């Protein structure tokens, strides 16, 4: 079982879109996948068609009020979800706890998903306690990136944070990047991509997720792209991305 | 700048501090490290509106010594203003006392700013003192392993 945090503190880079559709594509490929919504906005659950979120989710598990397995919702074949829960915002602002505050998620996950192939954590666009919990709970991160300058600036900040965690926790993260919302008609897109390939050789997944209207449409129907428009190029992109992830297909720097 | 294309559309390379070869992360240079992530104009506007409030909060007493009072919530949205305030203060003072008693919430961006401030101050042979750190300030710094570099006692 691998735990992977889908992380980028910049908003709008496609974290939830990547989480929903990559998880479903992996599940469709026969892998057992759990998706955890660590964003208090709860968009991951909505994207899977779970609209009523009155009951607790990962919040109660992190607060050690319930076992995390009690919070599981089966959303598709091979794919299960743990919602954010209404109290996740409280955890972000937690100043006191009977438990070490950075270990809440790691403790909640502890040996509870050994039957799964992958556990994905959809992180919030912030730099607070929830992100700290995600980075402490995982050894692998997947960073969705858009092809614009501000995304590069955000990535610089994120990598600085990751480095500090690596130094503090004496471990090295396996970091992969995915180019998301790629606008091929903009010249800057290819330059950003080239920069990423240069700085992260062998770490950018080979498939580029192209910007497409259907990806913006499907969450409102509670469907993944594989359900909403299964023959679209976006569905094809995410199936290919899942293969990249499983087989380690990555880009390298142009020589 | 990694990109060598003609008609380069990226004027400033935010990743320049990283290792060219293996993607291994190196320490960010000071200027880059303290540069906040301002993602859109709204954040700049928000920062601008906070400016006057923060200006009132700090009391810079003399040309050689200054005291800055931190507010309760320190997040990435406010880090640009704080950066400017600290940079200005460091330029004209040899010692900055940062009163951290009121801090109830602090994110990694702000802590990163303080680390960069400390490093810059050392280079300039100046002193940064975090006075009366709140429990939350201490816990957050401890969580990220920054107590020592910030010289904050748990």
**Alpha carbon gyration radius of chain A:** 17 Å
User: How many β-strand stretches of chain B?
Assistant: 5
CATH homologous superfamily title of the domain at 58-150 in chain B? STAS domain
CATH-derived topology of the domain at 58-150 in chain B: Transcription Regulator spoIIAA
Strand order of the largest sheet of chain A: 3-4-2-5-1-6-7
Query: Main β-sheet of chain A: number of strands, strand sense, barrel status?
Result: 7 strands, mixed
* Beginning-to-end CA distance, first to last residue of chain B: 41 Å
Provide the domain count of chain A: 1
Structural class of chain A: alpha/beta
Element-level helix/strand string of chain B: HHEEHEEHEHH
Which chains share the greatest interface?
A: A-B, 43 and 42 residues
**Mean of residue pLDDT of chain B?**
68
Helix share bin of chain A: 40-55%
CATH architecture of the domain at 58-150 in chain B: 2-Layer Sandwich
Summary, kept brief:
Chain A has 255 residues and is of the alpha/beta class.
Describe this structure in words.
The complex is a heterodimer of chains A (255) and B (154). Chain A is α/β, with parallel strands linked by helices and 255 residues long. Chain A is 40% helix and 15% strand. Chain A has a single domain (2-246), classed as Rossmann fold (3-Layer(aba) Sandwich). A seven-stranded mixed beta sheet of chain A has the order 3-4-2-5-1-6-7, with helices on both faces. In chain A, strands 8-9 form a two-stranded antiparallel sheet. In chain A, helix 1 packs across helix 11 (233-247). The termini of chain A are far apart. With 154 residues, chain B is α/β, with parallel strands linked by helices. Chain B contains six helices and five strands. Chain B has a three-stranded parallel beta sheet with strand order 1-3-5. Chain B has a two-stranded parallel ribbon with strand order 2-4. The termini of chain B are far apart. Chains A and B meet through helix 7 and helix 8 of A and helix 4 and helix 5 of B.
